[in-house]
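S.,

Sequence below, as promised.
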Amino acid sequence: NDFPTLVYNARGLGLMCSFDLPDGSIRDKFRTACKNEKVLLLGCGEKSIRFRPPLNITKEELNEGLTKIKVVLSSLYYFFKKKHLNLKPNFFKKLGFKNSIISLKSSRLP
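The prediction came back faster than expected:
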């Protein structure tokens, strides 16, 4: 609901969840930005992301990962909405994120 033009077809049961992004190149940029934030996600099919966290994941770890994923999705959303990032990297650094914004800004996205 937060990113209706970017994320769609959310599905899953329990910890096995996935969603689609508009295309494979956006999915790959999303995965790279998440990896820079120490969040490992799997690509699936042409444009999907899937989650397979360990069954012993704590609630705090899950919330930390979801927060990082939302920040990366926000970066992508604003990038495509404005065709470039006008967000200041310091905003994300204050939240504890290191490289997502820089890697997205330097990437050539469609």
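The chain has a mean pLDDT of 78.

Coffee later?
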